[in-house]
Write a structure and sequence with these properties.
This protein is α+β, with helices and mostly antiparallel strands. Helices cover 37% and strands 22% of the residues.
Amino acid sequence: MRIDSHRCVEESSPWILNVPIDRLTRSVQASNNRFSTSILESIRHFTKKDVNSLDVYLNAPAYTKQIQTLDLGNFTHIDLAYIDMVRDQYLRDVPEKYWNFVAEIYAKRLSLSPDEISGFIRSSRELTSRTKLIVNTTNGIRSKSEFNGGISVVFSRHENEPLPFEKSLNGQLSRPSSEASAEIVRLTVVKETDVKNLCRELIHQAAELILHDIQIQTTYIYTSKLHYRLYRQFGVEPASIKSLGARDVLITLKRSDMDHLYELTYA
């Protein structure tokens, strides 16, 4: 992924939640994020007269981030736990639009029934408060360009916060009750894009989100066998994989596996 450094850090606009620049600078200095050095250099080009806040997703509680690349378009990160606090209705509508976008594609590619589609969308809404979403568009999220693809991560701190695969399987499979876990879900890319490289970058950014959370020890991917072949192309060797009927599998990745996945998908 080639990052356009001029847009890696952008002036804030009315549709995002703002982070004060002095707080952001301290967060960048304390962060081990691989973009930290370039971000800090970019911040130094701004003054408080020019901008009072920046939208960068770091360990500080910023809720949106945009990364503009030269070869794969625009990536927008949204922490959906705070979506109701976002002022701009366009951005607030992005999750619902993305769930419907994914549902339409899954219905065609996986021959899902209407009940499965409605259940899919309902589950996505119910898990909003624990979901972080990444969407890709050709231009910025506010442009009229359609989704090229996206991915999301659902987090769980304990057994009383079920992951999507647990809800889908009605408790047929379980995980350690005291273990903080995550699940990668809703990976979708349209066929008109650079499918392999966009999938690789979306998976890489999702892995980065998970690895930023030091409590997460296990990550699950409940996916189709078609998608599993895609993960295998990137060298994924799960701690375990369980076949669930003719169509689906459950992949289990330990933290060391996620580290490996992060490195394998880095371009």
